[in-house]
Amino acid sequence: MDAIEAIARRRSVKRLHDPAPTEDDLRIMFSAAMAAPDHRTHRPWRFFVLQGESRNRFAEVLVEALRAQDLRAGRTTTEEALKTERTKLERAPIVVIACAVFSEDIKAPRDEQLLAVGCAVQNLLIAATSLGYGTMWRTGEAARDPVVKGALGIDESDEIVGFIYLGTDSETSGEPAARPRAFEFVEWWD
Ligand SMILES: Cc1cc2nc3c(=O)[nH]c(=O)nc-3n(C[C@H](O)[C@H](O)[C@H](O)COP(=O)(O)O)c2cc1C
Question: What is the DSSP string of 15-29?
């Protein structure tokens, strides 16, 4: 599949299955991520791959984070919410946590470094699509949570840019949702 077709075909798939991307395919996907535009080449991206037992162990981090959020907010954590949190990562055989780890640089400030990580994630999604995998980019409360950041060993001031779900899409007949027309948000300025 060429790049233009992969870009057009990429869509969010809520539930993904085995087979998971192979190590060779992950290498291609992360190589694509490394080709992202990156002002002043800070390489602000960090990726953590969750698969198998590590995915289960990370689910417990999400549960701990949820309990702490509820405690701070004075809410009771319901059994249902705990179950949802514990099983979230089961929506795909591999979940990649994409993070932005910032460097001080007046010429390539924090927002530019964040954009570079966004570009890296998009490259990864397009490469995965091109290899025939399904993908979904998710965030939510966990992406802003200090317990989750701590478990990854990143600073509280760094960002979790997304939980990137990867696997095989069984909805093979599914088409991307309708998108805006090519020039809908474009003007020729004069
Ligand atoms: C930064 C970012 C965060 C996202 N977080 C979520 C999320 O938490 N939950 C979700 O259902 N979709 C999330 N999405 C996916 C978007 O909802 C999805 O891309 C959008 O609905 C368009 O659908 P498509 O990806 O199929 O084209 C996120 C996308 C981005 C770029």
Answer: --BSSPPPHHHHHHH
The Å distance, Cα 177 to ligand 1 centre, comes to 12
Atom of ligand 1 nearest to the CA of 14: 11
Cα 138 to ligand 1 centroid, rounded to whole Å: 6
Buried b / exposed e across 146-155, counting CB within 10 Å, b at 16+? ebbbebbebe
Alpha carbon of 174 to ligand 1 centroid (Å): 17
Tell me, using a 6 A CB cutoff, whether residue 178 lines ligand 1: no
Domain annotation for the chain: domains and CATH numbers: 21-167 (3.40.109.10)
CB of 15 sitting under 6 A from ligand 1: no
Give, using CA atoms, the residue closest to atom 29 of ligand 1: 137
pLDDT tens-digit profile, the chain (190 residues): 899 999 999 999 999 999 999 999 999 999 999 999 999 999 999 999 999 999 999 999 999 999 999 999 999 999 999 999 999 999 999 999 999 999 999 999 999 999 999 999 999 999 999 999 999 999 999 999 999 999 999 999 999 999 999 999 986 556 778 999 999 999 999 9
Q: Which residues pair with 159 in a beta bridge?
A: 100
CA distance 94 to 56: 11
What pTM did the predictor assign? Answer: 0.96
CB of residue 139 inside a 6 A radius of ligand 1: yes
